[in-house]
């Protein structure tokens, strides 16, 4: 548990670091970080993951980042897939697939087809899932450096054939996946391929072949020290040997697998181990011990049933939260639309007021210019009249002086004659 807590702490620190990066990066880098954050939250909080994917999607569309847009759409589809909301998952996968085809991204197209195939498989459309997986495989033919995608599609194709009970075809695809894993030196992938093949042989009741492949997987997993898959393989091996009639030898593998499961608190594996051992003891005629293991199996199954119900309720709550958030977004969008319409109306009113004001200003300017012209004309006329008056005044003053002179002359002449 301590290792898990430390790992969770590392994840949280990494997320915190990425959140801080969002403040100081370009929009294109921001899209990448938002998508990475969403992926990191997928297991912890699908609702939070969806928020980051949607934020990445919006920004990617704004800056025409089609790769980021496709990844966000694929992520949104995956969130809905995890929550069992397959109706919502499908259109997002389809839209992402369309973008990948436009970009001619072969790996992305194949990956999306694999996602869609898994979706078909979950809804019981096994043949449609197989058809989609084969389409993805054909697309990758001759394409280099796509082994990581190819091996997953091969496994899923083999699983489809297994569900259709076409065991030979199933083995064929598991062998192809094994070949790629061996080329990549992927030991865990090799072990998975061995286990898948062993299970097919067990279904065919070819117990010797099944045990041989289980043993190959066990040899690898003991070296890798991955307790969960080691416990799982031991239990499958024990069950296979027990089916073949070797009860005591099979029980040894079951007991070892059960001990590892109990130590690791792998509850689902504990349940399987208890059931297998109960069955082994019953076949040996040890009914009392078989009953004890069966009771423990029943208790574990009841506990897991309650936990499954809790998970289902949690998923239902998450789906409700998603729908509620979608409704909130729709409401906000509607409010935004109404607000934009009001802003548009007010803007038009202001523009109209500005036009009226501008028209009034132009009219005032014309009136002012007209008044100035009138004042100027009248001033000019007054100046002319003033000049005329001044000239007339000069004439009148001259005449007054001349009359006075004539009076003085008449007076002088009159005095002269009177003497």
How would you summarize what this structure contains?
It is built from 15 helices and no strands. The chain is mainly α and 419 residues long.
Structural features, described:
The protein is rod-shaped. The longest helix has 132 residues, at 287-418. It has a domain at 245-323. Helix 6 (106-122) runs antiparallel to helix 7 (126-139). With 419 residues, it is mostly helical. The protein is 88% helix and 0% strand.
Please write out the topology.
Elements: H1 2-21, H2 27-41, H3 46-62, H4 66-82, H5 86-102, H6 106-122, H7 126-139, H8 147-163, H9 167-183, H10 187-203, H11 207-224, H12 227-243, H13 247-264, H14 267-283, H15 287-418
Helix pairs in contact: 1-2, 2-3, 2-4, 3-4, 4-5, 5-6, 6-7, 6-8, 7-8, 8-9, 9-10, 10-11, 11-12, 12-13, 12-14, 13-14, 14-15
Rg calculated over all Cα atoms: 47 Å
The largest sheet is: none
Poorly predicted segments: 1-9, 308-317
Report the mean per-residue pLDDT as an integer: 80
Overall shape: rod-shaped
Count of DSSP H/I helices? 15
Whole-Å distance between the termini?
Answer: 161 Å
Instruction: Kindly name the structural category.
Output: mainly alpha
Listing every helix as H and every strand as E from the N terminus to the C terminus, the arrangement reads: HHHHHHHHHHHHHHH
Strand content: under 5%
Helix content: over 70%
**Strand tally, please?**
0
Quaternary structure: single chain
Primary descriptors:
mainly alpha
């Amino acid at each position: 548990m301590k290792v898990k807590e430390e790992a969770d702490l590392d994840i949280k620190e990494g997320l915190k670091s990425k959140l801080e990066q969002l403040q100081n990066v370009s929009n294109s880098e921001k899209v990448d970080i938002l998508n990475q954050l969403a992926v990191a939250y997928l297991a912890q909080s699908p609702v939070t993951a969806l928020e980051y994917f949607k934020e990445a999607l919006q920004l990617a569309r704004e800056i025409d980042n089609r790769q980021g847009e496709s990844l966000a759409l694929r992520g949104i589809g995956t969130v809905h897939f995890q929550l069992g909301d397959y109706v919502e998952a499908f259109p997002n996968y389809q839209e992402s697939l369309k973008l990948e085809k436009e970009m001619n991204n072969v790996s992305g197209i194949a990956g999306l087809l694999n996602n869609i195939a898994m979706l078909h498989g979950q809804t019981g459309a096994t043949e449609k899932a197989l058809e989609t997986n084969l389409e993805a495989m054909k697309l990758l033919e001759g394409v280099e450096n796509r082994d990581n995608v190819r091996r997953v599609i091969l496994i899923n194709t083999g699983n489809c054939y297994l569900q259709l009970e076409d065991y030979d075809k199933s083995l064929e695809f598991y062998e192809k996946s094994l070949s790629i894993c061996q080329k990549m030196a992927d030991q865990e992938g090799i072990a998975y391929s061995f286990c898948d093949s062993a299970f097919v042989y067990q279904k065919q009741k070819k117990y010797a072949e099944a045990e041989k492949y289980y043993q190959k997987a066990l040899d690898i997993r003991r070296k890798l020290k991955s307790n969960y898959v080691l416990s799982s393989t031991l239990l499958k091996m024990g069950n296979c040997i027990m089916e073949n009639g070797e009860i005591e030898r099979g029980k040894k593998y079951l007991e070892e697998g059960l001990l590892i499961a109990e130590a690791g608190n792998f509850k689902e594996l504990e349940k399987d181990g208890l059931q297998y051992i109960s069955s082994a003891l019953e076949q040996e005629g040890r009914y009392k011990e078989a009953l004890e293991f069966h009771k423990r199996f029943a208790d574990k199954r009841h506990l897991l049933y309650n936990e499954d119900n809790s998970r289902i309720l949690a998923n239902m709550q998450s789906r409700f939260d998603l729908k509620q958030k979608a409704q909130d977004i729709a409401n906000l969008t509607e409010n935004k639309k109404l607000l934009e319409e009001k802003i548009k109306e007010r803007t038009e009113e202001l523009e109209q007021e500005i036009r009226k004001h501008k028209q009034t200003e132009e009219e005032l300017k014309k009136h002012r210019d007209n008044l100035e012209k009138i004042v100027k004309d009248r001033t000019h006329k007054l100046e002319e009249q003033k000049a005329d008056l001044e000239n007339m005044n000069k004439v009148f003053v001259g005449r007054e002086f001349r009359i006075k002179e004539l009076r003085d002359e008449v007076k002088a002449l009159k005095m002269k004659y009177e003497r």
